[in-house]
TrEMBL record:
The species this protein was found in: Microbulbifer agarilyticus
Lineage of origin: Bacteria, Pseudomonadati, Pseudomonadota, Gammaproteobacteria, Cellvibrionales
HTH tetR-type domain ranges (all copies): 23-83
UniProt name for this protein: HTH tetR-type domain-containing protein
Any GO molecular function: transcription cis-regulatory region binding
Keyword Electron transport part of the UniProt annotation: no
Xref: InterPro entries: Homeodomain-like_sf (IPR009057), HTH-type_TetR-like_transc_reg (IPR050109), HTH_TetR (IPR001647)
DNA-binding region positions on the chain: 46-65
Length: 230
């Protein structure tokens, strides 16, 4: 190899390493931001505190994130990627041998574990803060839309028998989402696990009921009205 080619190769290697090092530093800052959200609460997070938690200089912080707004936006997007990975991994662990009602109940358990993990706790706190912070709320809305698309794709596999049930399918998914998210942020007293399992069993039964209903109930009436509108 000629001396010129050798120098060029060394330079390219240095650029590649610098790029990789920069990406690693950026991820370390974002991990630290999420940890700060968990330990300090959104309102108490500053770029200086995140820099200290990440073990980087203020100059390095400013290089990657010149403002708190840019840090928060990147941290929210990073958090959502981690939430997607977490949910996907939990769903993937459901045994393939489970079918029908058993598989759907396992799906509820996987979603519950996801909702009660540290990552979702952070996300919920950000949503609460976003009620009075328009900029944060705008960032969350964009990220949430992408997350819901991913969950919808996963649910199409978990609830494949119900995919063609139109509005009833979306009713079932909304019931699951809002009931379980409400449970996740609820205040629990004695016999927490027993009460949670009872509610998940109840939810599972109601989902089965939605798709087997053909009588004069609120569910069937709702479905008939939606069909008439369409």
């Amino acid at each position: 190899m000629s001396e010129v080619k050798a120098r060029k190769s060394d330079a390219e290697g240095e650029v590649s390493w610098q790029s990789k090092k920069s990406a690693m530093t950026r991820d370390r800052i974002l991990e630290a931001a999420i940890d700060c959200f968990i330990n300090l609460g959104y309102a108490n997070v500053t770029t200086a505190k995140v820099a200290d938690a990440a073990g980087v200089s203020r100059g390095a912080m400013l290089h990657h994130f010149p403002s708190k707004t840019e840090l928060i936006q990147a941290a929210v997007e990073y958090l959502h990627r981690k939430l997607l990975d977490d949910y996907t991994q939990r769903v993937a662990k459901i045994p393939k041998k489970l079918k029908g009602k058993e598989r759907r109940r396992a799906g509820l358990d996987a979603y519950w574990e996801h909702l009660t993990g540290d990552l979702f706790v952070v996300y919920h706190e950000l949503c609460v803060a976003g009620r009075t912070d328009e900029e944060l709320n705008s960032i969350l809305e964009r990220a949430t839309a992408r997350f819901e698309e991913h969950v919808h794709e996963s649910n199409h596999e978990l609830f494949e028998e119900w995919n063609e049930r139109g509005d009833l399918y979306f009713l079932a998914m909304d019931l699951t989402k809002f009931m379980m998210e409400g449970m996740a942020v609820g205040q629990w007293g004695k016999n927490k696990n027993k009460r949670i399992n009872r509610l998940l069993d109840y939810l599972g039964d109601r989902l089965e009921e939605i798709f087997s209903d053909d009588g004069p109930t609120a569910i069937s009436q709702h479905s008939s009205k939606m069909k008439a509108k369409n």
